[in-house]
Specification:
By secondary structure, the protein is of the alpha+beta class. Helices cover 71% and strands 12% of the residues. A hairpin with a 2-residue loop joins strand 1 and strand 2. The structure holds zinc ion (ZN).
């Protein structure tokens, strides 16, 4: 599944790896924050400051995803599911599992832990942002934690879409599995939702690209 990857560190006994494809995301996120979002939201700062904010935002995102995957892994371990470790790659993070979970309850708990941990981080960052705005903390700091609050809320909501193998799809599968006591059937149904959601994303992507071309073609030339 992965290309070349580097082991960064171990946390609670889990190895945290980063696939080289993650670097593409790190660069894209840093760049879009430093050259796009932050100058737009907080005009009047220096270019160097925006880049520092971009790097801080991208490191914060990196930490948030590790926190999310770590939550899956810790809950999985409580249920005795052997976990291989955490890998960050181009589509985010994944907590690698050796086997299917032993019961619907184990899968439900393990899957829901990720989005809950992201909601928790969103609340913490948003709380800090409110305190910081009222306390007159530096705009550079408030900007970065405000971004982290929003991005964690997006991560939580996106992962709750009931499309297998997203977390929400695993939650959905565990409910079906618990209902009919048939993991194959549950997997088939939740995977069908997953494929439909994948097609929907491609459709939206193509639509956006087409619209971008139309605007670019008629507007800027
Ligand atoms: Zn997750």
């Amino acid at each position: 599944m992965f290309g070349k990857r580097i082991t960064l560190f171990r946390l609670f006994g889990f190895a945290v790896h980063v696939d080289l494809s993650w670097i593409v995301i790190a660069v894209l996120v840093t760049w879009s924050l430093a050259a796009g979002l932050f100058p737009f939201q907080f005009p009047g700062l220096s270019t160097g400051t925006y880049w520092l904010m971009g790097i801080a935002g991208s490191l914060g995102l990196f930490g948030s995803i590790i926190f999310h995957e770590m939550s899956h892994s810790l809950v999985a371990r409580r249920f005795g599911i052997p976990m291989k470790g955490i890998t960050l790659f181009i589509f985010g993070g994944v907590a690698e599992m050796d086997d299917e979970p032993p019961s619907p309850k184990a899968e439900f708990s393990m899957a829901i832990a990720g989005p809950l941990s992201s909601f928790f981080l969103a609340a913490v960052f948003y709380g800090l942002y409110i305190v910081g705005m009222q306390g007159g903390w530096p705009m550079t700091f408030n900007g970065v934690i405000g971004y982290l609050g929003v991005i964690n809320a997006i991560l939580a909501v996106f992962n709750l879409v009931p499309a297998f193998p997203l977390d929400g799809g695993r939650v959905f599968r565990s409910i079906l599995w618990g209902w009919r006591k048939d993991i194959r059937w549950a997997t088939r149904i939740s995977s069908a939702f997953g494929s439909a959601f994948g097609l929907f994303l491609i459709f939206v992507g193509v639509l956006n690209a087409l619209r971008g071309n139309f605007i670019g073609g008629s507007g800027s030339s």
